[in-house]
Amino acid sequence: MSEPTSADNVLMDFDLLRKLIVGIGEVADISGVPQRQIRYWEDKGIIQSVKEGEGTTRKYDYLNIKKVLLVKDLLDDGYTLDAAARKVEERMKTINEVFARLSAQNSTP
DNA sequence: GTTCTCACA
DNA sequence: TGTGAGAA
Description:
Keywords: DNA-binding, Repressor, Transcription, Transcription regulation. Helices cover 67% and strands 6% of the residues. The chain is built from 5 helices and 3 strands; from the N terminus they run αβααββαα. The two termini are 21 Å apart.
């Protein structure tokens, strides 16, 4: 009877994204970017990794994966790491606002 | 399974 | 800029 509304749908996707944290291997496989390159960008400061507990294995959250995917596309378009990083950061600003908005709704009973 | 450094093109 | 290999 209760049909999923667009609002409920977006919340379901958001819940999935904020829980989607995988290692560099998964990101490299899904993003198609060699693990070497992913770490390379992270070293440049284009993207950041989240450390899990004490392990040294860096995990990448949806936002980081999005950056890798975005930077890869930008680089393929003829952009350089510096140019791609700038565009990605601007895009992250928008995504961050959406995340904060969804986070508030998800945390609001 | 991941991470680090060194070196090269 | 991106990758190779070895080592821990």
